[in-house]
Amino acid sequence: MKKIFGLILATVFTFSAFANADEHGEKPPFNAADHAIHHALDAHEIHISDAVVIPLPIILWTDNGLVMFMSSAFEHGHAIVERDGMSFVNHHEKIYQLDAGAHAVEFDAEGHPTNAKHITKDFSITKNVVAMFLVAFLLLFVFIRSAKNYKKHDTLAPKGIARWTEPGVVFVQDIAKDNIESDKYKRFTPYLLTVFFFIFFGNLLGLLPFLSNPNMTGSISITILLAAITFFIQMINSKKTYWLHIVDPLGNSMPLLAKLPLYLILLPIEIAGIFIKPVALLIRLFANITAGHIIVVSLIAIIFVNESAWWAGLSVPMTLFISVLELLVAFLQAYIFTMLAAMYIGSSVESAHH
Which secondary structure element, helix H or strand E, spans residue 54, and what is its range? Predict the structure, then answer.
């Protein structure tokens, strides 16, 4: 509970930095919506405070080849960086290459840049990438240590860190057993374990004050990748029975002539369902994780919208409640994604039943 309260205080201090006066001594108007959306976006640097900012590498592939520099060169988006005769600017965490002689990005009425082009081949290390590296390191550290404990202690009872990992492994294995028939679950359990703990660790890291902006699993690109991998595993391992159910969902239950009118409705639905399932996976995870962080930021923003510390008596307890709830959501979303992935894979590999 102390850690959660510390998280809330850190969030308050982060917002207090936004509410500070600008360089001319004037207090800028506070826009809660802009700060909530900004909180959920990726970034090219990690903000600990106004005085402590960790720059990250900018890696761009341009028409003139590879360009690399640190994000600190942008001076928080206020400076133009010149490298190899080219000029670059960071506008809302998107890197643009300016036209020759331009000094800032200019936009038309529809918001399209008129004197710069967006660098699409951006391989920069962003906060999402840092979060993925941290999760990968934690997964390797935790499970390599667990494996060593099993080798070191030749007993049935787990020792050390394995006491924590074994219930999680058994839990995911039971999900696989319940949704994938016979011994086929053994083939897919390693993937389901990886997905479960990858999402779970990512969600927990996202609760930390300076890594939750953004949360790794709150990035649509990460959830698309996870859903795509699940989809390809499902398709590659699908059996004849699965496709027969798609193209002939009614089977032999009705005469052919009676089924034809129904197939005009059922076939498009069945085919669409193949692609709707992975889309549902990615949207569910992305939306739930992102929504939790935006709610926390919005509740804290009540203090600054009303410009009164007395509102903390309302917003801080509510934020504390949502933060505790997010601990449950961190596990729940990992469980739901893993369970649905097991169901989709299980339906594609099951044998025909007579």
Answer: strand 53-55
Query: Which of 82, 95, 114, 341 lies closest to 234 in space, CA to CA?
Result: 341
- pLDDT score for 292: 78
**324-344 CB burial, b ≥16 within 10 A, e <16:** eebeebbeebbbbbbbbbbeb
Q: What CA–CA distance (Å, rounded) separates 338 from 336?
A: 5
CA–CA distance, 335 with 105 (Å, rounded to integer): 44
Q: Give the count of beta carbons closer than 10 Å to the beta carbon of residue 191.
A: 17
- When pLDDT is averaged across residues 124-132 and rounded to a whole number, the result is 87
Is the confidence at residue 33, as pLDDT, over 70?
A: no
Residue 210 is predicted with a pLDDT of: 58
Pairwise CA distance, residues 122 & 109, whole Å: 26
Query: How big is the CA angle at 351 (ends 346 and 353), to the nearest 5 degrees?
Result: 115
CA 238 – CA 348 distance, rounded (Å) = 4
Q: What is the arithmetic mean of pLDDT over 224-244?
A: 91
pTM: 0.80
